[in-house]
Amino acid sequence: MSAQEERNALTLPPALYHYALHLLHESPDGVPPRRGFPLPQQPEPAESTLSLEESQDAVRDALNPLPDDSATLHRRFARLGIRDCHMHLTLIRSAVAGLPLPTEQRDAARSLGRQLTRTGTTAPAVTAGLALLTRLGTPEDIPYLSVLGLLRKFIHPAVETLDALDPQSAAVVWLSFYARPDELRPLVRALRRGEQSAIRAELLAFPAEPRLLNTAVARRIAEAGRLPDLLGRHPSDTALLARAGRLLVRTACSRDAPNDLLAYRDALAVYESVVTRAGLLPPTLDNHATLLSLALDLSSGPGVLLDWPPGRRMALLDALGRLLAEPRWASLPDTEADGAGRRLRTGWIRRTGRQPFRHPTTPGRLRVEVVAGDPVDRQPVETRILLDGRPVVPALFDSGPAHSPEYLLDEGRLRAGSEPSEVQLAEASCTEGCCGALYVTIRRDGDQVVWENWQRPSTMPGSRSPAPEPAAYRFDAAAYDTEIARAETDRSWSWPARTTARLIKAGLRERPDLLSRWDAKRGWVGSGFDAPDTTEVTFAYAPGLGSGKPDGTSLRFRWVIPDDGTPPEEQAAAALNRLTEEDPKPYAQVCGGTRERAEELGFPWPERD
Q1: Radius of gyration of the chain from Cα atoms?
Q2: Which residues in 43-53 are b (16+ Cβ under 10 Å) and which e?
Q3: Is residue 5 very low, low, confident or very high in pLDDT (cuts 50, 70, 90)?
Q4: What is the C-alpha to C-alpha distance for residues 321 and 187, in angstroms, rounded to an integer?
Q5: Which of the listed residues 118, 236, 468, 537 has the most CB atoms within 10 Å of its CB?
Q6: In what order do the strands lie in the sheet with 366-372?
Q7: What is the pLDDT of residue 31?
Q8: SS3 labels along 128-194
Q9: What's this model's pTM, rounded to 2 decimal places?
């Protein structure tokens, strides 16, 4: 060691593990702040002067061969200019993941990983240690990983490593970092302390609303609370049973990332507990909605994809069907219809209540189910496509639900024509440009229809494993055409405002002049997201837009049409007639564009809440 290296060794900062442990002990009640702790200030600049190619070479040189001790790797990283920046830390994780580690080298590599995570003083060194333990860690490493995961730089690799070793510890760390609403912090505090009575109390105390429970939060709460064990200790606790069902429903929610359900290792055990004890639940509208949502998942949703013992899924589904057919449950939609939310839910139960229990009399390779989720939960309406009984979208794509029936069925996109047609079956909830989409090419081949040339993200849903190329599917053309025609004409899932929207959209498609005469162009038409019992018509407007020569940028308008109780056909006809006679801009509201453009054209800009 040179004299300079000796001086540096005497002034090394504390190990990042000890730094995080100290901050944790100093935190009120031993609970870290949301978003975790920052790293200590480092004397070196965070940004690297190395190019991507130079950085790749530097990381490779630092790791080959793996040193015997952590100090050597610290020196290599410093000498090669590898710093605490996102690019370098990402390259380190990738390089370590790809290192060949013969059996005879694994113990030494594990030992190095432990040295780096427990004594490492820089982000690159600790990152390398975490990456080694992702491959080689054992339960001995859980306490150290749980502390390092409280540092912002290390939350993702620490949780990834803990997921393989102890999902409960991974979930506690994840919730400590990501549980944003204040309503969840008491639960996080109880989970970190490990107080079982407090965990149960706080699990029941927070409002289980969609704004608090996306799929990831619901799954992590179930994992952190060891839900199967909790249910086992309280077999007659109906409040806990209802909350377990609620967490399961939210974990499988297709609007977010339904494959959190596939990543939840205890999903089968929780389904088993909730469904077999469902008869203990009091017959309330909330409980009916929970059980019906579970049945829809078991029938055609991501619940189908779990590793069920033969026949068990259908047995649980049939048990739910028998329970919900009992008079005390079946009568609920007729006795609890007061209030807007209750009316939405009772209408949904009437339309959907028996759908998951109707099994096809002649099962085929293809089944198309339009499923409308719980409207109070703001669940989507999706076109679930089952191939050989398995829902294709959650099996191949984990970033959003299947497209709506208006997109896939009303537009005839699933029909097999004489020419091959590429069809988008699902798109990421964020956008395709962010997290991708799922495509398939549909073509007719003689007396068969072929689905082939699938396009999707490169990893398997619910994991980081590379995604294999999906196989081509062949269907008997006559049976295929019959199933698509049946799905296109089945409107049993729809409700008045949704039907009104479909009829208005069809009328505007047939007569675009109804809007173009007002220099407007049709946008999205559907039932309201916040108010499903309303129809919303959006359109763009700019002077000259109707003639194809707009003068400047467009404004976007939203026309809201409440359901007045008359037949949807009459409501749609009235709306189209109004467009014939009246410019829609005065009775619609600006919903997009810019304030400056709105003021220029003489329209009030909406006030935001």
Answers
A1: 28
A2: eeeeebebeee
A3: very low
A4: 34
A5: 537
A6: 366-372, 381-387, 390-391
A7: 84
A8: HHHHHHHHHCCHHHHHHHHHHCCEHHHHHHHHHHHHHHCHHHHHHHHHHHHCCCHHHHHHHHHHHHC
A9: 0.89
How far apart CA 142 and CA 162 sit, in angstroms, is: 7
Is the confidence at residue 544, as pLDDT, over 70?
yes
User: What is the torsional sign of CA 584, 590, 595, 597?
Assistant: negative
122 phi, psi to nearest 5 deg? -130, 155
Sheet (strand 534-541) strand order: 520-527, 534-541, 555-562, 589-592
Residue 569 φ then ψ, to 5°: -60, -40
- Helical (H) or strand (E) element with 370: strand 366-372
Residue 487 gets which letter from DSSP?
Answer: H
| Rounded Cα–Cα distance for residues 241 and 273 (Å) | 8
What's the Cα-to-Cα distance from 27 to each of 20, 34, 118, 264, rounded to whole Å? 11, 12, 21, 30
CA atoms within 13 A on the CB side of 450: 13
Name the amino acid, one letter, at 374.
D
| CA 556-561-566 angle, 5° bins | 155
Tokens 């070793």 identify what position? 165
Q: Please state the length of the chain.
A: 609
Rounded Cα–Cα distance for residues 63 and 412 (Å): 55
Q: Is the pLDDT of residue 373 over 50?
A: yes
Distance CA 510, CA 522 (A): 12
- Give the type of residue at 268: L
Q: Is 388 left (phi over 0), alpha (psi -120 to 50) or beta?
A: left
Neighbouring C-beta atoms of residue 334, cutoff 10 Å = 9
Least confident of 323-327, 374-378, 511-515, 601-605: 374-378
Phi and psi at residue 160, to the nearest 5°: -60, -40
Token reading at 92: 């380190």
Single-letter amino acid, residue 320: L
Compute the distance between CA of residue 133 and CA of residue 302 in angstroms, rounded to an integer.
31
d(C-alpha 239, C-alpha 328), whole Å: 19
Q: Which two tokens stand for residue 11?
A: 């002034």
- The candidate with the shortest Cα–Cα distance to 275, out of 294, 259, 288, 289, is 294
| pLDDT for res 258 | 65
The amino acid occupying position 166 is: D
CB atoms within 10 A of CB 309: 8
Please list the residues that pair with 427 across neighbouring strands.
437
Phi and psi at 424, nearest 5°, equal: -85, 115
Written as six digits, the tokens of 484 are 């698509």
Q: At what angle do helices 312-325 and 267-276 cross, to 10 degrees?
A: 30
In whole angstroms, give the CA distance from residue 224 to residue 156.
17
Q: How open is the CA angle 108-92-51, to the nearest 5 degrees?
A: 145
Buried b (16+ CB within 10 A) or exposed e, 395-415: bbbbbbbbbbbbbbbeeebbb
* Contact criterion met (CB below 8 Å) for 373 and 381: yes
State residue 48's pLDDT score.
61
Secondary structure letter of residue 41 according to DSSP: P
What is the rounded distance in angstroms from the CA atom of residue 199 to the CA atom of residue 240? 11
| Proportion of the chain in helix, strand, coil states, percent, rounded to 5 | 55, 15, 35
- 8 Å CB contact between 283 and 408: no
Provide the strand spans (E) within 239-291: none
With a CB cutoff of 8 Å and minimum separation 6, the contacts of 118 are: 15, 17, 129, 144
Report d(CA 323, CA 353) in Å as an integer. 12
